Amino acid sequence: MTAIITVANQKGGVGKTTTAINLSAALAHRGKRTLLIDLDPQANSTIAFYDTGEIATSMFDVLSDSRTTLTAVIKPTKDPLLFLGPGRLSLAKLEQVLAGQFDAPFKLKDAMTPVLKDYDYVILDTPPSLGILTVNALVASTHLLVPIQAAYFAIEGTDDLLETYERIRARPNPGLKVLGVVITLFDRRTNISKDTHGQIRSVFGEVLFKTKITKNVRLEESPAYKETILTFAPKSPGAVEYKKLAGEVIQRVEENRATHHAEDAA
């Protein structure tokens, strides 16, 4: 069964796209055939691999026009196990295009179904909002991963995201689970990062991943060279940390599957 992980936080600037890109690359590095789908109109996950002029069709076409298949828009990357469902600025119009359509929240799930057999993991990069794109991602997903910056007011706004998560679980996707919360942009030198880490741990407890993603200039530089951190600076702290995070993600997904099978057997 394919693990489909939405990376979401409606608060911007928390390293969400950086996490989506480099977690995807780290999963591929571990031998997992991985599809990264860019649902953010800013399209930063896409720009990390391709120039915008190279993208003729995107996830907007898939979600707005049933004649465009996901297979038709998926593009390869330099990693033979990592693939991209590209985004474009036109995704910003999707809410307006889908207005009034009764199946609007299910567009992504329906589009993904035919390709899931080809992938071990699908990572969904979402916009910093709780609109139709994020709802589509949560309806289509098996898991939610929340990046939180180690900064003041870090937890502010997560209540809205978790409330949306519970609403999705109540009706369209009861199998959705919180995979975990990962601390990003962690600066060991500052007291505020250390204090915030303690605050986040007190709120989320065991849901918090052990791996923290530290502030790293290499992580900021790599997209400009159309590289993930794993190829741009493979020995950097960012590369090491995302590989560790991928290991934790795989372990939690497998534990969830084992629990699910045990419950089914009972």
Largest sheet descriptor: 7 strands, mixed
Q: What is the string of helix and strand elements?
A: EHEHHHEEHHEHEHEHHHH
Kindly give the count of domains.
1
CATH class: Alpha Beta
Using only C-alpha atoms, the radius of gyration works out to 17 Å
CATH architecture heading: 3-Layer(aba) Sandwich
The mean pLDDT is 93
- The fraction of residues assigned to DSSP E strands is 5-15%
* Low-pLDDT stretches: none
Shape call? globular
Write the SSE topology.
Blueprint: E1 3-7, H1 16-29, E2 34-38, H2 44-47, H3 59-64, H4 70-73, E3 75-76, E4 82-85, H5 94-98, H6 107-112, E5 121-125, H7 132-140, E6 143-149, H8 158-170, E7 177-184, H9 191-204, H10 217-221, H11 229-232, H12 237-265
Parallel strand pairs: 1-5, 1-6, 2-4, 2-5, 6-7
Antiparallel strand pairs: 3-4
Helix pairs in contact: 1-12
Key words describing this protein structure:
266 residues, alpha/beta, Rossmann fold, 12 helices, globular
Describe this structure in words.
With 266 residues, this protein is of the alpha/beta class. It has a single domain, classed as Rossmann fold. The chain is built from twelve helices and seven strands. The chain has helices at residues 16-29, 44-47, 59-64, 70-73, 94-98, 107-112, 132-140, 158-170, 191-204, 217-221, 229-232, 237-265; strands spanning 3-7, 34-38, 75-76, 82-85, 121-125, 143-149, 177-184. It has a seven-stranded mixed beta sheet with strand order 3-4-2-5-1-6-7, with helices on both faces. Helix 1 crosses helix 12. The longest helix has 29 residues, at 237-265. It is globular and about 50 Å long.
